[in-house]
Amino acid sequence: DSNDDIEDVSLFDADDDVSRRSKKSKIRHPVASFFHLFFRVSAIVVYLLCELLTSSFIACMVTIILLLSCDFWAVKNVTGRLMVGLRWWNQVDDDGRSHWVFEARKVSTQGSKTSSEAESRIFWLGLITCPMIWVIFAFSALFSFKVKWLAVVVMGVVLQGANLYGYIRCKVGSRKNLTSMATNYLGKQFLRQVRFLGVRKPS
């Protein structure tokens, strides 16, 4: 990925009307929270029940791909920004170089957050769980020799996995930051083990 440049920028529209809503509401964006789960859960339900509802594979495949596409667009462009203050995209400059841009909302000077903990849990739970389910579907289709369904489940893995990867990068920062976090964590664990062994060492 030598042609890819990583850029971290602040969310340009962080100061929207949502920041002025009441802090008493646990879920400040109920519509966004609903559609964050609706499309991806609906795609899974249709995949599980489509053979019972209809005998047309084409109809099932088109329905699932439409739901996955709607989910990809909604999560990438709407629910991530509203629920957790994150957004990512890729752009190509005039020289043909690919730039991955990861946005994170800046904390206000008062220290208040525009997203609640309940929304954050809903966002990350849906973002992580559903791609794992599609991975299970992929192995199931592969081992049961359902070749015609393999393309559908691979589409689910790719679309939802791309959003998961993008938002993890938004959350932890660039590759250098991710490497630094891993190094610091391993260093702390090593020092903790050394101290523990030093305490347990007989005198």
Automatic annotation (TrEMBL):
The keyword Transmembrane helix applies. GO terms for cellular component: Golgi membrane. It comes from Chroicocephalus maculipennis (Brown-hooded gull). This is Golgi apparatus membrane protein TVP23 homolog. Signal peptide: none annotated. The lineage of its organism: Eukaryota, Metazoa, Chordata, Craniata, Vertebrata. GO terms for biological process: protein secretion; vesicle-mediated transport. Pfam families: DUF846. The chain crosses the membrane at residues 30-49, 55-75, 122-143, 149-168.
